[in-house]
Amino acid sequence: MLLASPLAVVEQLGLPASYELLEGDAQAVELVWRRFYAALLADAPARQDFDAVVDGYGRFQAEKALTAALQRRVEFALADARGLVAASVPPFGELCPDFASFDEPQAALLDDGALRQQLLVAAQTLGRASQPSFSAKGRELEIALTQGDVSAVLAALLTLAGTPRKFGDKVAGIEHVRDAQAQVARVLAAQQQHEAWLYQQRMARLTRVLMNEFSALKRERGWIDMNDVERAALHLLADPVLGGWVQERLDARIRHLLIDEFQDTNPLQWQALHAWLSGYAGSGGGAP
């Protein structure tokens, strides 16, 4: 089908007019990394994205995630074209509108507003507790607020797991402490959402760079893979004019269609099949 496709279609899909079909993409994947890192050196924002991901998760995990994204490049491209990738992880401001005015949620802990006053009251309440471990946390919280140490503020009121520390019910004014803990837990959850959003956005941008370099490598080498063939099939079958031309050619050669291992059909294959078979809807296919 691809050999008989109009040249304009081949060009529109970014495929070489004369090509070699790759049975597997291992060779292309191995060669693309040098191009990818060269692209990062030439693109400061992309390099910053990669450095941030490596700083947070390590180089091995960063490359592992990008390799996995490249293996799912068809699904990524289809979703990205519809804006689904960018919207798949919402920013913290959508989930916690009261923190939306801050660049990041944890800045709310140090802002000279109602939350800070609530934290100061909690620090004073704990500081007056007769239990030494409770009063120590009150002093820690007060010092953390004074020094602007966000991590120390969190540690004074929450455990390493992010759950509220247990303070005795007999502490006078314990409700102020519990309210402060609930607010700090909300800030922590919003901060985690923010970090997940940052990671997702960076990985999406890096995946686009990697996919662009992968496509450029294949064009230079005159390679196409099965993903390209499937993408071309979808393009042809979904086009209102070309789809009829393709169906005519298929009708002349195919009387029965058997789909083996249908559960393994990927989104691109399914869309191509749907575009083809939907043309027969209402044509008597359900007649006895």
Brief write-up:
The chain is mostly helical and 288 residues long. It is 65% helix and 1% strand. The chain contains 14 helices and two strands.
Q: Strand-and-helix sequence, N→C?
A: HEHHHHHHHHHHEHHH
Beta-strand segment tally: 2
Derived from helix and strand composition plus strand pairing, the structural class reads mainly alpha
Radius of gyration based on Cα positions: 28 Å
* Largest sheet, strands/sense/barrel: 2 strands, parallel
Question: How confident overall, as mean pLDDT?
Answer: 87
How many helices does DSSP assign?
Answer: 14
Q: Could you say which overall geometry the principal axes of the C-alpha atoms support? A: elongated
Q: Which strand order do you get reading across the main beta sheet?
A: 1-2
* End-to-end Cα distance: 32 Å
> What is the strand content?
under 5%
Estimate percent helicity: 55-70%
Instruction: List the uncertain runs.
Output: 283-288
